[in-house]
Amino acid sequence: MKNYIQTAFLFLLMFSLFSCSEDLVEKVQTGTLKGVVIKKGSNQPVKNVKIHTTPSTETVFTKDDGSFIIENIPLGDYSVRAELTGYLTTFQGVNFKNNQQVVSVVFELSDDDSLNSPPPAPTLISPTDNAEGQPLSVDLSWTCTDPDSLDVLKYKLVVKNDFDNNVIEIKDLTETHYFLENLKFGVSYFWQVTVSDGINPEVNSVVFRFKTSTTPNNRFHYVKKSGGNYYIVSSDEANVNFQFTPLSTNSWRPRLNQNAGLIAFLRTVGGNAQIFTARPDGSDAFQVTNVPLGGFNNAETDFSWSKNGKEFIYANYNKLYRINKDGSGLQLMYTTPDGSFISECDWSDDGSKIALKTNDVTGYSVKIYVIDVLGNVMKTVLQNVPGAAGGLNFSIDGNLLLYTYDITGHQEDNYRQLNTHIFTYNLSTDEVIDWSVLSEKPDGSNDLDPRFSPNDAEVIFTNTSNDGISEKTITKITLQDNSRTILFPGAEMPDWE
Description:
Blueprint: H1 2-26, E1 30-39, E2 50-54, E3 60-61, E4 67-74, E5 76-83, E6 90-96, E7 102-109, E8 123-126, E9 131-134, E10 138-143, E11 154-161, E12 168-173, E13 177-180, E14 188-196, E15 203-204, E16 208-212, E17 220-226, E18 229-235, E19 241-243, E20 251-257, E21 262-269, E22 272-278, E23 286-287, E24 304-305, E25 311-316, E26 319-324, E27 331-335, E28 341-347, E29 353-359, E30 366-372, E31 377-385, E32 389-394, E33 400-406, E34 420-426, E35 432-434, H2 435-438, E36 445-452, E37 458-465, E38 472-478, E39 483-489, E40 492-496
Parallel strand pairs: 1-7, 9-16
Antiparallel strand pairs: 1-4, 2-3, 2-5, 5-6, 8-10, 10-13, 11-12, 11-14, 14-15, 14-16, 17-18, 17-40, 18-19, 20-21, 21-22, 22-23, 24-25, 25-26, 26-27, 28-29, 29-30, 30-31, 32-33, 33-34, 34-35, 36-37, 37-38, 38-39
């Protein structure tokens, strides 16, 4: 009986202890910590970040999307720590007050600048140091590598020269090259690249020098079109060329004078056509005229140098003017007796003759004739014919006059020409030769803006379809055998001096 009572007592005691333990387990309450880790400034998720708490619970690492979760955290106050090599360790305090409470946190990690290495000095590659004869457009290139492979490198390019005080500074480059354009002939340029990783101090490269080629003695100049503007190109016969005038200005009708060492051209100023001159490299552009050129159409207007390169003649509607190349000495030379517009003029090399093309306000009722410097008519070449004409140019001896005429006599408001030929008129014999027929001009095309070659053996001109929208091509005719040779595709208004 005594053994039975002891056994029962032990059983009751064990049952009581088990019940108390179960009550204690059921009374432990926990919460859940959820969060995400991102990079400060970019908000990009950061993976493999170590997350642990104090007091210690579970240690976890962030996933590819930067997220993490720690479950079954006993209620209470905790300090949560986020750490990853290369970033500053970050802490946040959290508090779990209620059972099954979910607390969300966001960690923003900042780069640990103390662990970031500065980039090396950029290595300049091209052009090589002290390179000579460089073109007017140069692709500057260099190399540089971030030792941490994490930072975004940005570059600053500084270019100076020995010609003027102009400094070119290009900032925030992310590519390791820069295409430098519109340089000047015969000038030394000095360039340096600075790199920054946004953390460490900037690092400078060494300074390299290169020199552009000297100004070529180009005898060809022609016009191309960009958007709504004409611009002038300087070229040799192989079409090795450079852009003579900027795209931002409307410039056309180039005229080189070897004696003056200048190239004259027309440029729009305030809606008017004015004569300008510039050096063969395009520098020192100078406005000669203030009284503008005027006619029925600026694109059909022309002017002429004197042979000695000291003066110009040009027209303003029905008046012909003479002016010095420095803009002084403006003189009225001639006024048309019938009030017709003077669209084109050319001055013979000996200065004794001036060829004029006149027309009405529509560009028609054309008359081509030659006057002396006193205004007396010496010869009438073309008159009382319908259609368009133009393209005046004297031969060296002044005995032949080049001109063009649309043999169809077609007339319409947009001044379209259908079959324009090149002619020479012999002032001594009155003989007229149609060089377009002799050289077999393509059907459906026009020959326009002819100029004699410097030795009168060839004629350079523009050939284009009569549709008014096709590409223009500068071509030459060799007068000895009447052969045609294409010189410059996509170009017009040629000059060959």
